[in-house]
# Entry
Amino acid sequence: MSKAIKIKLICVTVFSIICIIITSLLIMYKNIDIADEQISNENVENPITTETVEEQGIDLKGKYNQNDLKIISKQASTEKIEFSYFQIDGLRDKTIQDNINKEIERLTLNSYKEKINIDDVVNLSVSTSCTANYGNIISLNLYCWGRFDASKTDEQTEIIDIEKGVNFDLNTGNKIEFNEIFKTNAPMKDIIRKSTYYSILRDKAETNLSYEMIVNDYGNIEEDLAYVMEQYLRGKITEVYCTTSDIIILFDDMRIDIPMQDFADYIVIYNKFIKNEDLYEDDDIGIDNLYTLTTRQNDSYYYYTNYQNEANYFIDIFVEWQEENKTDFEKKLVENKIKDIEEEISNLKVLANQNTQNFYILNYKITIEDYVDETTKNTFIKYVEIGNSYDMTAHDFTENIEPIVIQKNREAHESDIEFVYDFSSLLGISPQETTEYYNPITGVKVVI
Amino acid sequence: MQQKNGLINVLLIIIMVLVVVGCIVSYLYFGQEDVSNTQNTIFNMEDYPKVDGSIATLKLAEAFKSAFTGEDIDNVNITHSKTEKAYENLINTETDLILVTYPTEEETQLALNNGVELEIYPVVKDAFVFFVNKQNPVENLTLTQIQDIYSGNITNWKDVGGADAQITAYQRPSTSDSQKGMLSLVMQGKNMKEQDLEDVELWQLTDIITDYTNTDTAIGYSYNYYTSLYDKEQIKLLSVNGIEPTYENIKTGLYGLQTEYYAIIRKDEPEDSNVRKLLNAMISSYGQSIAKEAGYVESY
# Structure
């Protein structure tokens, strides 16, 4: 064999080997690509996450401030629809404020369009309310109710019942997604499973003869739970809003409540969006130092509230009167009572300032209303005052009294009960009740 | 000599061309992403039969539709209305094929009352599994030990090789698939102890069957699919009689506690209908390989 042929043979062999190596590498590279794609798909479903240092759960003994935002009620109507919603005011960044307001308005005015044809409806009411206003977020719940025109629709039920919810980050105006409400290492499957389990059972519960809520038929609850979990894993839980105590998921016809108290360690909504930057024009609109998972309103025309929770005093006063048909005497009575209360508050603050080791509580609920005497049929003004003032050591307050105050506030939020605290078992002093009757015209005190 | 050289040159060129062609063919064959998808497309999206079923078979139905139509799995748009409703839909002819558990007496009766005969074919297997907290040292229980735990004869983990701690044995509501499976597959006629009930003040609920909570002393059970409700990093599946509920052991039947999900159609479906074509595709070797790829254990 000649040298030239040998060289040619070697060249062809080397060429063949190079071709085979390149082909093998290309096949391997492509297969790695496919495998990577599969792994990255898996990661979408089960993201590998790490907890960041900033993430803080809810401190169940802690306090929070409401946002310094004005919530302004708005109304609108068409031939068949009544809308009531709100707008926010008080953000420094007017672009963000406008965007949020436009979105609230858009959501309200379009709320029913996905699910119903307005031609099939007799009437419809749409109400959008602010359910959370703290930690630089606001949440809203949107509820549509009304009646279908039975002659124009095949709907099984004539009643319209649509609910929606959304959360906004006031720093950016962006919507807050479901997963952003929780720590990145939160046991989401446990949170969703447990909350769904109890929510489903709450919907299935019936009252027994002892007026207890029991469940007789659980149905195939595992499949119901699996359905919700599947929706979560597919990222389809998008309709979510918060209150101060619950996170509410809405989808299909389900309403799943996640009680913040049960999963407080993993919920970051109270703190996550609080940055150093001051977002608000004013600093005295929202109530400060509310206990976590509790709330208060302070924007009504027919009652007076005074809630102040500071270093060594706690003031919780509520005065309620009837707005309509108020006589001059009644107006004067309310004015004087509020003046007295504010004077008492002022004195208490002086005392608290002088005795920093002590803790002071001022707690009253006052009701001023009409009272009709059944015998004489005469109408009187009935004045009821219940409450007391208390003093104790700061240590006693923190250790023994404050847990009662927190508990009472959380119960009040759930069942709307009155904020009258009873510390008699610890302090030996009960809330005192005073009832007085007045002639509504002359203002003379009468005995009934 | 020159003629010989020319012949050798031609041979070498042919060899080079063959190598290049071989490489291209190899690349196309071995490097192809999903040959099967296009090779086995047997339906258009439009003529694909209406499929319904349980939540447990949702991913299976999606995988089948994607494979048999060639459509991307994200676009197949399958919804399952859960077992009970799926049976109703099949019987009322609102759907063509359902992927569900074996019909209960009530579902069979509903079909009979509506003059519908059902044709039932197993499609995939599912194991009935027991799980504990990952920290629990117990790895295996015999069937007898499980029966004793759930009848109340064994109450402490130390009696089955674990720590000295009271066993918290969670059960399921009687209407759930898992409780039915527990009674038929595991207890086999033996009585179960009374269920633990709880009052949930926050929800104002009284005497509620306690949901599994993954404490160190807990033991729970379900069909394997439903373990997706739990964080699998935190629970541990137990062996039963020394056999782990692995894919292989379920496939071969070595792991004894198992059931199947079925493809069910109405018996009056014509022989040449798309519904039967789909059914046959599901139980074909290709259909079964699709089921396996989707994370299920194939029946055949």
User: Anything to note?
Assistant: DSSP finds seven helices and 18 strands in chain A. Chain A touches chain B through 49 residues (CB under 8 Å).
